[in-house]
Amino acid sequence: MVHRDCTALASARQDARPGRTQRRVLAVLLACLAWATAGFGPPILTSGGTPPVWRLDPAQVQALVDAARLPTITAQAALLADAATGRVLLASHVDDPLPPASTTKIMTALLVLERADPDALVTVPAEALIGEASMGLTPGERLTVDNANGSVEIRGWDQNKIEVSGYKYAASDDALKALRVEVSVSGGVAQVRTHRPSLWQGNYGVHYVIRTPRKVNLDKINSTNGAIRAEDIEGAVRLSTTNGSLNLRRVRGPVDASTTNGAVELYSVEGTVAVRTTNGSVRGDAVRGSLDASTSNGVIEARVAEAGEPRPMRFSTTNGAIKLTLEALKSANVRASTTNGAITLRLPPSVGARVDARSSNATVSTDFAMTSKGEVSKKRLQGTIGAGGPTLDLSTSNGPIKILKM
């Protein structure tokens, strides 16, 4: 068994020279803003009244960061501008659609930037950083994470080992020291655990960044009060959190993921996928396989590039609309239901299917010619499209239903 206690890392350094200090403070504040507003896409810049765009080579910006001995900023999207002139120095993925950060995070970041002294040197306690742990792990083996509070980022790579880094936070220095991180590998299972004194309450937690072989099974990745993100994984994925979002990108394998009070984002996910949330939206793009998505008080929006078979696809919400685009239906049945929301289903023009769509208090309509009809009224549509095929079972109250051609 290989075991390591990752409680602290290196010492902090200071440099009294004004020029370097100011650069460090600016970079640290930008890093804080990137962390605080993770998931918030910067606005799209337009012409007309905006300052001229002056773009630096990303390698130049990274060289400046490296020269200041600061950690690399790994935000999904980034925008760096000169505060004096408004010129854009660096723009990375600024047009990517991303879920908005919470108002609390945005306002906290704005207050920090407004009240921070440009000449101040911010010191981060060494105890807040997790000492990097690196251990061997063979493709096909398992990874588990048990986090008390905080977010978890897992990224697949082409190396036969896991690498764990990140940072801790707590209300006091003593609490920060008492919060421990344990990483171990035994019997083909890598385990990452957060240990805290019993009966602890208050503001504390750990933010993990984990690199793992792509072909690994993510088994029981659990957290509370934090987001979970997994990308570039080929294996079974089981994720669970509360009060945090779920984001899966480029995942191939069965997925079982749940959260409360958080959104679910799926991009280029392939396999049998089941996701659940409450008080949050579910959005998927370029999904291949079987998708089972449920939420309450949130919309469901998905583009399925290829529907799996023979497992049916199910979509369920309350107080939210359902918008589906099914590019290749094959033989998978589809069931979509909501209350207080509309249902919009887009299908290929040549599709064949059986339809049973009904709304309690709104209209049902379609672009398709029906080759045979059952009950047809303002609020219900039964019949066959084309040569027939899988069943489309659509139901709502207080919302219209539209079945449209792509």
| Biggest β-sheet description | 26 strands, mixed
Can you tell me the overall shape? globular
Mean pLDDT: 82
Ranges with pLDDT <50 over ≥5 residues? 1-19, 32-54
**Share of residues in strands:** 35-45%
- How many angstroms does the end-to-end distance come to? 55 Å
Structural class by secondary-structure content:
mainly beta
How many strands? 28
Radius of gyration: 25 Å
Task: Quickly count the helices.
Answer: 4
Percentage of residues assigned to helices? 10-25%
Write the layout of secondary structure elements.
Blueprint: E1 2-5, H1 18-36, H2 58-67, E2 78-81, E3 88-92, H3 103-115, E4 133-136, E5 142-146, E6 152-157, E7 161-170, H4 173-178, E8 180-186, E9 189-195, E10 204-213, E11 217-222, E12 228-234, E13 237-240, E14 246-252, E15 255-258, E16 264-276, E17 282-294, E18 300-307, E19 313-316, E20 322-326, E21 334-339, E22 343-347, E23 353-359, E24 364-366, E25 370-376, E26 380-385, E27 391-397, E28 401-405
Parallel strand pairs: 5-9, 5-11, 6-10, 6-12, 11-13, 12-14, 13-15, 14-16, 15-16, 16-17, 17-18, 17-19, 18-20, 19-21, 20-22, 21-27, 22-28, 23-27, 24-28
Antiparallel strand pairs: 1-8, 2-3, 4-7, 7-10, 8-9, 23-26, 25-26
Helix pairs in contact: 1-3
